[in-house]
Amino acid sequence: MNISTAHLQRLFVQQPPAGLSPIVYRNWLLGRYLYHKKRKGKDHLLWLEQAQAALLKTPLKGMALLLCRFFQAYPRLKNLQASFYWAHYRALLGVPNAAERLFYERCALAGHWTAGQLERQIRSQWLWRRQYQHVANAGIIGNETAIALPNPIVLDFPPRLPIHNEQQLESMLLDQLGIFLLELGPGFSFVARQQRLTSFSGKRFTIDLVFYHYRWRRFVLFELKYGPLNAAAIGQLETYVQLFDDLWKSPSDQPTLGVVLCRSIDPALLRYSALQHNAQLLAITFERKVNSEK
Predict the structure, then answer these.
(1) Would you kindly state where each structural domain of the chain is located, as residue ranges?
(2) Closest CA to 169 of 226, 232, 223
(3) Could you give the CA distance from residue 217 to residue 69 in angstroms, rounded to a whole number?
(4) What is the pTM for the complete model shown?
(5) Positions of the chain with pLDDT lower than 70, given as ranges
(6) Cβ(235)–Cβ(283) below 8 Å
(7) 145 in helix, strand or coil?
(8) In the chain, at which residue ranges do the beta strands (DSSP E only) sit?
(9) Tens digits of residue pLDDT in 125-149
(10) How far apart are CA 100 and CA 78, in angstroms?
(11) Residue 255 and residue 252: Cα distance in Å, rounded?
């Protein structure tokens, strides 16, 4: 089981298939070579020593085990994504479960995530904050048609401004709209802020935030509550959803979804309010994560 430094050097200059990142292809070839050398040998410590020595004077110093894990996770070249850089795969390799890794990979493709965005979603355990986790257990994650919003939503706010009420929360969400859309997941597009609605009797209402999801083909309304959830907010949202369906929803759209975004939820309200029996209403919490500014 001799690891040939000369052979490794030849792999460094191999040309990738059209569209595939040269670095990703190079690392996949190296991982394949090292993995098969590891399988042929009986002394894994000796293999690791030789592999690390062979990579010592290369940009991949100390990465022998990572390269092997890369090939093990993606043994077929055709499964590598042309739009992914090596940083994407480094983030994905931090997910040990294959089904979870596939979920994040599909979402990154659907949402055109950068490597930094993908790493952020994995680090914040975005998959396990989503609703309807049975979708993941069923093995069809990434293709779900059910409503799947994270709970809680993690908001990355800079510390420059305090947030004490709904107006400040709304302004900060729009200032950080990219992060909010990332949290909601692929398919969401922003429609309106403070959307006005007028009923047939002339009564006027205002919805905090309106989004549209092109895969679900439905509008999603957000009512913001900086404090805990209360019955008044639920009743208000129910009215907004019904009125919005009457005024805005087209025949091809699915029924509008209304979401109360709040700091905390009393379990009794979930059980004894319209949230229990109305599939168009949902309450989720948010957590504020303050990022230090440089």
Answers:
(1) 1-82, 88-142, 149-290
(2) 226
(3) 39
(4) 0.84
(5) 1, 131-147, 159-161, 290-294
(6) no
(7) coil
(8) 153-157, 188-198, 204-213, 218-224, 257-262, 281-290
(9) 999 898 644 444 444 344 444 567 8
(10) 20
(11) 10
